[in-house]
Amino acid sequence: xxxxxxxxxxxxxxYLRWREMVLLGLNTASVVLSDDPPPAPSQxxxxxxxxxxxxxQWVHDDAVCRGYILAALSDxxxxxxxxxxxxxxxxxxxxxxxxxxxxxxxxxxxELEFGDDETxxxxxxxxxxxxxAKSSFPEPPSDQSVAYDVCTKLPDVAKDAIMRGYGTTMxxxxxxxxxxxxxxxxxxIRNTEASRFAMREKEEGSGKSGHVAKKRRR
Length: 218
Description:
The protein is mainly α and 218 residues long. It has nine helices and no strands. It is elongated and about 85 Å long. The N and C termini lie far apart (79 Å). The model has no long low-confidence stretch (mean pLDDT 85). Residues 195-218 are annotated as: Disordered.
């Protein structure tokens, strides 16, 4: 069984990464985090051996999954969750404690702020992720809905995308692909201007230093 280094879960911080790493480990181990044992065959069923094999496989998978999840909990959390008898019950108990709900994602989106050191594409990525997360209940949102939410957080990118016609619909809305394309183009322009400005400063500095050197030689 291949293993991946998983930092033991010790609270809400790091839960999302922990969840994905545990699922990756279980998938790599080729075990299934199933709900319940396979139901007993009806009296009309003649192949009882198939049921016994399925039950044996479930017992094996459940034991591996449960042990793997418990091993990925910190010493502080292990006594809290070890009482759950099946892997599914254990998994859902941890999720009930730390899984973010709709209102949490909604609040995170509303309070989203960007750092001065973030690029436009990093800002688009963060806004897009939260827009999807807050609107994924009961079903995933449309691209247009996500793009609309991102536009509320990045009006400059939205305006640029619409002006350039990137991914613009007949109704005048843009798409996520249009916002990404616009952010990339805006960054390219900004980087080009910054590079030219730096080169001018360097050239002016070289010219001044050369002028001073000539005066000293005189």
